Hints:
By secondary structure, the chain is α/β, with parallel strands linked by helices. It is built from eleven helices and 13 strands. The chain has one domain (2-342): Rossmann fold (3-Layer(aba) Sandwich), CATH 3.40.50. Helices cover 29% and strands 21% of the residues. Strands 1-2-4-3-7-8-9-10-13 form a nine-stranded mixed β-sheet, with helices on both faces. It has a two-stranded antiparallel ribbon with strand order 5-6. A two-stranded antiparallel sheet has the order 11-12. The longest helix is centred in the N-terminal third of the chain and has 21 residues, at 2-22. The protein is globular, with a radius of gyration of 19 Å.
Amino acid sequence: MxxxxxxxxxxxxxxxxxxxxxxxxxxxxxxxxxxGARCADGSPYFAFLDVRDPTRLSIDLMGGGACWSHATxxxxxxKTFTESFRIPPTLPGxxxxxxxxxxxxAEHSMLYLPYCSGDVFVSxxxxxxxxxxxxxxxxxxxxxxxxDVLRYRERFPLSGxxxxxxxxxxxxxxxxxxxxxxxxxxxxxxxNRVLISDSPxxxxxxxxxxxxxxxFREDVAWAMEREGMRFPQDANPVASQLTHFCAxxxxxxxxxxxxxxxxxxxxxxxRVTPREHKExxxxxxxxxxxxxxxxxxxxxxxxxxxxxxxxxxxxSARFKVAGRTAIDFIAENIRxxxxxxxxxxxx
Length: 347
């Protein structure tokens, strides 16, 4: 039974990755060549820009797993994207939609950052495996170079931006949290700054970090320190550091969406069971308690399901907790409205 469960988890994850790579986009994207940026397999990195209202800018960090070995980067247990995207793999409905009835970001200009480095956007290093294969995990560099292209080559009028919304899902959700300072410097101090972190996990098992190389752990630790947090040194989940993160960035409205037993961030990646993940979410160091004790700029929406990511697709964007759908929670945080916590009854 356990093997069958894990097979279904893996199959579901593969279906998610395939769906992400197969969808056509309704927005009018311009493909941006990004000099010096690379995907994990060494292929060139491309970002995508759709210019609409120049006073409202959204930056979308794609998700899609992580990798730490030849098998997880290239197969047979591939767990992330390592190759270039020629079109943006956005999903219909949800926050990436160009339809105002579907997304509160429909009229925003949008910069789409594909994810093909397997490093949650934190690294800038080459890694060689014992098999002789190597990966170029340049996620942090890809962000930096893309923002330079937006600023200097595309000459996007950043000085006139009145609202900046950074949305990340899955690995992109964690990447957005660990890169918030990079986006902070893009726009004027008076701009409305909003970070939407959709299913970042943050409740990993005690041995989760052991699979990754020392260089990657150093990159994560450095990014966490820059954003006001400390790399986990004990059994407490990463979520326990969010009080410090929220206090470090008081000018940002920061919203978290998370499934209580998120199957991808537990059984597939997190080295905990879905049940253990749920227990961690509701523990004294978990997301619910941490956001309740955090500064008022941080909010959370916690769904009683094993679903992974809520804002991307039409169906999941309409999942509801305490009378509020995922997409409505996102919209009200952009407006800086709504309750601090939406959680299942009794929590």
